Amino acid sequence: MSLLRQQGPAAAVPPSPSVEKVAGTYAAGRKTGRRTAGLSARTRHKAMGLLLVTPFGLLFAAFLVAPLAYAFWLSLRTSTLVGGDHFSWFANYKQTFTDPHFLSGVRRVVVFGLVQIPVMLGLALLGALIIDEVTSRLAKVFRMTLFMPYAVPAVIGALMWGFLYSPTFGPVNSLTDALGLGKVDLLGHSLMLTSLGNIVTWQWTGYNMIVLYAALQGLPREVYEAAKLDGAGQLQTALRIKVPMISSAIVLTLMFTIIGTLQFFTEPRVLEPTASSVITPDYTPNLYAYNLAFQYSEFNYSAAISFSLGAVVFIGSYLFLFATRKRSGLK
Amino acid sequence: MTTAAAPVPAVTTDRAPRVKSSARGRVTVNAVMVAMILYFLMPFWWLVVAATKNNDALFSTAALWFHSPGSFFDNLQQLFTYNGGEYLRWMGNTAIYAGISGVGATAVATFAGYAFAKYRFPGRNLLFSSLLGAIMVPATALAIPTYLLLSKVALTNTMWAVILPSLLNPFGVYLVRVYVQESLPDELLEAARVDGAGEMRVLFNVALPTLKPALVTVLLFSMVGTWNNFFLPLVMLNNDKLFPLTVGLQSWYQGALIQSGANALFTLVIAGSLVAILPLIVAFLLLQRYWRGGLTVGSLK
Amino acid sequence: MSSNRRPKLRSVRRTAVAATSATLAGVLLAACGGGSDSGSGAASKGPVHIKVWAWYPQFKQVVAEFNKTHKDVQVDWVQAGVGQDEYTKLKTALKAGQGAPDVVMLEFQELPTIQLSKGLLDMGKYGANADKDKYVDWAWKQVSDGDHVYAIPVDGGPMAMMYRADLFKKYKLKVPTTWAEFKEEAAKLHKADPKAYMTDFGSDETAAGWRQGLMWQAGSRPYTYAASKLPDIGVKLNDAGAKKVYDYWGDLVKNKLVDTQSYATTDFYNGLSSGKYATYIAAGWGPGYLSSVAKKTAGKWRVAPLPQWTAGGNAQGDWGGSSFAVTTQTKHPKEATQVARELFGTSEAAWKIGIDQAYLFPLSNPILNGSYFRDKKYDFFGGQQINKVFVPAANGIGGFDWSPFQDFAYNTDTSEVGKALQGQTAWSSVNDNVQDQVTSYAAKQGFKVSK
């Protein structure tokens, strides 16, 4: 979906008990030996911190700050195919927010997100609750199977589904054909968003499930063991106790999913060649920015679109965090 | 955990219906699991089946069942020898990218995460808070400027163009920092210092061993990130000899679709996809305990 | 993406690059070791190395042939990407001012775009004008602007109709010579077998060049453009010829007489081999494509001239075609020009590979009109000498200008065709909508547009 999803788990990590034990005994024996840090120690401390953070700082500056600054500078200039380029302040941004291509793309990903995100996170939550509760062999298979698509490059995933959606030899159409329902054009206008949503759901449900599962595993068992003794069923325990207790993890996955959805790019790009009259160059805002730069050589305007999208994402996620502040602070 | 063999006795009559309902519940849960397994497995199943077919069978037989005679080994043989064995080369490239970036990114993230958690230094808060904003930037926005900047130092179209940007893993830093805060008490480090250990020794001998699950997690996820990365190498590399698998397979597929005539290539793309995802799935399966450990340490039943 | 071409043939194995045995360390060292480019041989007396981007696999042998016959210049071939992927990389490298090859394979319709970004070297300064008479007239006009030569033509795509002789016999169809007959036969066929179609209307971006070729035949000349006359450009995408084509095909689509599968799909390929499509309206490179995609229908196909709008007419169109251009980033303009001119040029050895294995349609006069090409019999077409259809078609193609924003125009056209297919807009308004969008885009890009 986007790079950020590939970057790693978004789950907070609970501490290891064994570590705490070790730390406890180690520290206990030494408590008396504590001393106040001298000036030289503090300087050394500071130097050490700087030293350790330097590689990251350099990379951060080189591959994030510098490109961003450069892109921002680009976005303040206007260039045309004929006539060269000039500094134009925020003209590109003004154009962005009245550009029907950009706005229709934003609308499309919002509509897409409103349906796909609840379905995917709903499935992920359901899966997480199941594997938290059931320890059978089936549950283990279930856990790994759902997670497997995460290991598949998005390019290959979309390519596989491209074959599966085929009207001639795809299994979906064989099925509807056999049932006498006729062909279903999964890559046509009306179903394309659904088909894309299916790919994303397939790819990311397992990952989100594992994150939520990790949060569930971090809950103190006693709370709901007690509830069970009180006669609450598994379903009730799950809905009334477990779900509220991991609400911060849910909010977190929700936020990352929203960010990813707004940046929707890889799947439509991979399906684009096979359905180019449906997936137009402005299909999603990110695809639009990509095509502007790489197909039409409109680097400046493309940079402005990207920044505008970044701003939408930024504001969107902060609003979201603000709105769910209470909920996420529950824990 | 809630097995049937729960302590039974001392029950009243109202217990009976609940047992029934929970049995029904178990059936429902199992049915849900089986249905979801089938759905999530289906594309993999298709891939395995399709990889055993030749071109004719691929486009004329039922998609989800085998066709005899199969040509799995022919497909593999062709996959590994096509165009001078470029697939193997791409695989090697991918391993290099993922290996170096994975180890490098983990090291960088560990040092930085540890520093953020345990040291105070100028710029600490600014850097850390901008780290979270970093993930909001769409990758496409960075692609062009990064390309232009790298080309100024003549690094585009080299392996470094893929490796260097992949070393930056803000999430890894975040994860390590949280992990260090939660599982590495100051007292432990302080005690080692009192014992006369230098800062480096504290880091390598005291902190790192404790952080192992987090490191494995960061390593695995950054390797997967690089292994699966498509956009960055697509933009950075012009030379097919430097392509990773994702870009290489895409170029085969693109060629098959557009230059057409590419009968052979469809089977190659399919067999190539299967071979490309196997290492990752195996890695995830084998290392399951470690990476799940990274996520869930401390709360195992 | 912009055109459906480049047949790929039998698996040609690369022996030179024994990548299999390259150890990981070796690859790593080689790749990480140094900067990027070749050709900096400077003072040393070894041969000059010219880096060439091209994407069809048979090119390997052509390069080997060139390197065998040249001492001072050697070609290093790189497959940077297929079609649009290659153009994307070229544009990015040009923007960066670094990283472009010396010589690059470009389809004709991309030339003005790259030229406008100052990416193409004027080979006229290095003697390329001497080649003028070696190439078909209309092709030379596509690559030059007066004495400025921006590319050397390689192959073209004169259009014709390939058809399944066996199906035509089975359903008693007549080989259509006009588009009106084509429609009648299409109705007859579809009635006889509701699962079969006369052909497939290419609605995707891959087929944008196909649609443009058909309009070309119908007399449409949407652009009046020459780099030397900037910023003037004439844009008329809704002229009578263009409208005639969409009215006609829109009618066939609405009556379900043709299929509407995207060309860049496996389903389309399958349709060609399964008998779902009775004809394939394609270009001079099409036989290679068809014979490898629909291998099992070998011997059943024949080639006939493109149906005409008026009975007895001789209007032709072109779909696709490529050239070799030299980029402005080359450090060896002289040698690069030589490579562009001589890789194929009039070399019979190179063209033998091009014709027999890559199924290229030569635009080089001596080859095109030579008996080897003209009289060649094709088993796939039941021994027919198909070039006796294609060569006259090639000679009937008139002049045609492309725009320097062809990607935008093709994408816009594809989007609007998609809307019409979906019933969101009328077929009759497609051309007008495209015209509106493209002219306003051009105006915004600083062109002085005359409509």
From TrEMBL, chain A:
TM stretches of this protein: 50-73, 109-132, 144-166, 186-204, 243-265, 301-323
InterPro entries registered for this protein in UniProt: MetI-like, MetI-like_sf, UgpAE/MalFG_permease
Example of a GO cellular component annotation carried by this entry: plasma membrane
Pfam families associated with the record: BPD_transp_1
All residue ranges annotated as the ABC transmembrane type-1 domain in the record: 106-320
Membrane topology field: Multi-pass membrane protein
Homology family: Belongs to the binding-protein-dependent transport system permease family.
Protein name: Lactose transport system permease protein LacF
UniProt source species: Streptomyces jeddahensis
Lineage: Bacteria, Bacillati, Actinomycetota, Actinomycetes, Kitasatosporales
Automatic annotation (TrEMBL), chain B:
Listed CDD domains: TM_PBP2
CC terms in the record's Gene Ontology section: plasma membrane
Transmembrane segments: 27-48, 95-117, 126-148, 160-180, 256-287
PROSITE patterns in the cross-refs: ABC_TM1
Transport found in the keyword field: yes
Membrane topology: Multi-pass membrane protein
Domain of life of the organism encoding this protein: Bacteria
Subcellular location: Cell membrane
Major localisation: membrane
Domain ABC transmembrane type-1: 91-287
A GO biological-process term: transmembrane transport
Keyword annotations from UniProtKB, A to Z: Cell membrane, Membrane, Transmembrane, Transmembrane helix, Transport
Annotated Pfam families: BPD_transp_1
Family: Belongs to the binding-protein-dependent transport system permease family.
Name this protein carries in UniProt: L-arabinose transport system permease protein AraQ
TrEMBL record, chain C:
Matches recorded under PROSITE patterns: PROKAR_LIPOPROTEIN (PS51257)
Signal sequence extent: 1-30
Pfam family, one: SBP_bac_1
Keywords from the UniProt entry: Signal
Key word Signal present: yes
PANTHER family xrefs: ARABINOSE-BINDING PROTEIN-RELATED, BLR3389 PROTEIN
Entry protein name: Lactose-binding protein
Originating organism: Streptomyces jeddahensis
Lineage: Bacteria, Bacillati, Actinomycetota, Actinomycetes, Kitasatosporales
Gene: lacE_2
